[in-house]
Amino acid sequence: MAADSVLKRGLVAENPALVQLLGLCPLLAVSTSAVAGLGLGCATWLVLVVSAAFVSTLRGRIPPSVRLPAFVVVIAAAVTAIDLVLPVFLFDLHRKLGLFVPLIVTNCVVLARMETFASKHPLRPALLDASAMGIGFAAALIVLGLIRELIGTGCILGGADMLFPVASDAGKVCVSTRGMLIALLPPGAFFVLAFLVIVWRWLQRPNGDARAGLR
Question: Per-residue pLDDT averaged across 186-209, rounded?
């Protein structure tokens, strides 16, 4: 399978958040800011890559009858390692993400890729698929966080110091001093995600259909 087709599928055609609608719980709960979305997106990407490496390498040695429990153990081990290391280097980000780092274990995106791809392909394609799906999921988190943060606070990139070595709010960009609180609440998350899904699917339509939709 060509690398570009694997990457395109994970980023565009089968984007786990905007097309398959997987992992909605962390997607909606954490995406109150771009920085939080980036943090959880990177953690999810790392779990996908590490888990795919182990599952692909051991795929011939895992009995079919216990494959799902085995995948969960591998994913849980990767998540536990990240959850232990993250507060050492990025304590404020770890506190911001809270329970949603351990809950990556239950993220449907991760288990689905282990079952449908990593367990059936060699190491290199499995890593490409995991990277593409992880980047696609992280991109959706970041875009959703940017939109909600901008509408809700009038600013973006608040709390950048949690990820980058800058002074507090040094990277913050404000376009307004007022915002709409609903964007930061659960209903706002659903509305913004629905808007993104509509736009994403409209962009994926053939040109003829898109023009017809404009008439």
Answer: 84
